[in-house]
Amino acid sequence: MKWGMLIDIDRCTGCQSCTVACKNENSVQPGMFWNIVLPWESGSGSTFRRTFVPRPCMHCTRAPCVEVCPTGASYKTEDGLVRINYDRCIGCRYCMIACPYGARQFNWKKPWSEVLGVKMDEATVGVLAQYFNPEVPPRPKGVVEKCTFCEHRLAGKKVGATGMFNRPARVTDPNRYPKIGGTGPGGETMNSTGNPEDAIVPACVQACPPRARVFGDLDDPNSEINKKIRERRAVRLKEELGTEPQVYYAFE
Amino acid sequence: MSRAIVNAWIGVLVVLLAIGIYAIYQQESVGHVVTGLGDWVIWGLYIAFFAFFVGLSAGATVVSSLVYALGMEEYKPIARRSLIVGVASLIGALLFIFVDVGNPLRALLVPVVLRNPTSPFIITSSSYIIFFLFLLAEIYFVMRPKPTPEIAERDKRLVKYFAWAAIFVALWFVHSTTGTVFGFIKAREFWHSPLIPAWFVVSALVSGAALMGIIAYLSPRITGKELLSNAALNHFGKLLALFILVDLYFEFYETATLLYAHKSAEMEAWSFLTGVHPTSPVVFFVPLYIGFQLLPMILAFLILIYPGNRSASRVFVASLLAIVAVMSYRYNFVVAGQIPLLLPGIPPHLYSPTWIEIAASLGVIAFVALLYTIATRVLPMEEASARA
Hints:
The complex is a heterodimer. By secondary structure, chain A is an alpha+beta fold. Chain A has eight helices and nine strands. Chain A has helices at 17-26, 64-68, 94-98, 112-116, 122-128, 151-154, 203-207, 224-232, and strands at residues 3-8, 36-42, 49-55, 74-76, 82-84, 105-106, 144-145, 213-217, 247-250. Chain A is globular. Chain A starts with a strand and ends with a strand. The longest helix of chain B is centred in the middle third of the chain and has 35 residues, at 149-183. Chain B has helices spanning 2-30, 45-68, 76-100, 104-107, 120-143, 149-183, 195-223, 230-261, 264-274, 288-305, 312-336, 355-378, 384-387, and strands at 282-283, 286-287.
């Protein structure tokens, strides 16, 4: 199993739904973004063109951030995710220096709960669960964080993710993340087919109104994402660096 | 008179150290948000000073090895001081890492349990520890009392082995691997050059020799005891000029390659250096790179090669210029490498060190100076036989 994502630049409208969904889903602190939409501009006057390029973590197969991490806090999981162990991170930020995509964020400040002096006991968490996703562990000051491909959602399909207080993340309730199945404008099957299993995708994939993102298993030659990569002749960013990203981009 | 100067000096250092500790306390309680750093310029003043102090340590140790390994007896009066500078600077460099990282206490475990062998930091931290132990052992064998001529002879031989090993570890590992921390990073084109480890080593020699030049000038004026003879100073000036020449050589060919290739990322870093980029550091209306790195280095070289005897004050002025140039080089190199945007469209931010960063850095520097001052007062700085 090797999770990957395909982003169809031609469909992206730059609406930032993925950015907002990601921040909501992962309780990302103010001023920090795990997913951003880059406006790429070219030409001038009548040839001016702006293309929107969403940028999550690339979850590189040969991730430079994992190579340079002195403590092994950043590592590749068995299902191809680049994961950060917040308890091992010393905050040297070498991974941010080494990442060619700027995907990593440092916790320059204390989290909101520490600033307000909120005691994060079980009862408080229960109340806050309606505002903050209890399945995503909070990040303390002084560690690096980044997009996880919503590993807590994928926990329904894999093992190893942990929720708050290091409890094993519960198998994601498909009703919490409503199905978005159906057919696309061209009549093609979308990444969620109405099968509850397929509803388990990262928040950005689920939130994308023009359905520009496809999520799936890169190791399975018959997966929807691999079919799309072949059909659209998808490319990866900064291929020349040999990082072999697991996020593909398709454009005409 | 001299005692009053020393007491005033120690007083200033203690005040700076106290301010620095307060700044570090602020930073640790609020978070690194009090620094000017952000997700765009990730490493700043602290890492620049870290690289500078590692270089100082390696360079000063090589100066001491000129005496103990190569037998240049004329520099013997500054050899012990060079070893003290080597240890104190290495401690300073490690303190700068602990000030920089987000979890300093956890970082203490890196050389012991939290290890990822593919990280350049593992070989750097290991070589710093080995180098530190080497220096301590060398200082012990140099300075311990030598009751009989046999023990003195045996210690001299032991010190010679240590001094050769110190040259090797300092040049091959300590500062070269500090260069690879930057030179290995393919994501940052401005840093990604095989010249960097070698250039780091040469600039380390410049800074180490320059600091010893400054000490050789100031120390006699405070203690009243002459350190280097005029002939030795004259020769020391030539040595420093040679180091500066090789450093300028690296500067020239690294820059020439950059300008000839004119890749967009490297040109962005270059525009930062030359003052064109909106975030370029401009000190007293002069771009940092031209006014505080290139010009002082060339000026120091010209002062040293000017015909005639190199007097103590001439070597002192040249050393001062050279050390400012190396300090600026470290800052320019660290910050300029991060200026090119990784992907177009990422919102940039301005980096300039905040007062907290400057106060914390001055605090660490004051601590290093305090270590040096106390060590040179407590430990024997001259051979026992010379004193008797």
